[in-house]
Design goal:
By secondary structure, the protein is mainly β. The chain contains no helices and eleven strands.
Length: 117
């Protein structure tokens, strides 16, 4: 079992910055991937960025996040998403995700990010 709690969401102006954090607890040693997803109203949940924990922490990004967002594993219990040059289309509920060795996915409760134009 892995527990995830997001924080750091809020209202930000277009072009601004925001940093999301995810506190991880439970069976951390079973985690193979950590990531951030988002879901905008009326749309499917989509990958934003992630880290392959088993491959030296190699990050990967969706095209929409490249060059603007940075995912990092600050320590074994915290994963962050730095968001720069945010756009109105970044408005969504952002979810922290972890995948463990047996393929099971765990999700946080989500944190709202709203970008005003």
């Amino acid at each position: 079992q892995v527990e995830l709690v997001e924080s750091g969401g809020g209202l930000v102006q277009s072009g601004g910055t925001l940093r999301l954090s995810c506190a991880v607890s439970g069976m951390i040693f079973t985690i193979t991937h950590m990531g951030w997803y988002r879901q905008a109203p009326g749309k499917q949940r989509e990958l934003v960025a992630g880290i392959n924990v088993t491959n030296g922490g190699t990050p990967f990004y969706a095209d929409s996040a490249k060059a603007r967002f940075t995912v990092s594993r600050d320590d074994t219990k915290t994963v962050s998403l730095g968001m720069n040059s945010v756009k109105p289309e970044d408005t969504a509920v952002y979810y922290c995700n972890s995948r463990v060795r047996n393929g099971m996915n765990y999700w946080g409760q989500g944190t709202q990010v709203t970008v005003s134009s």
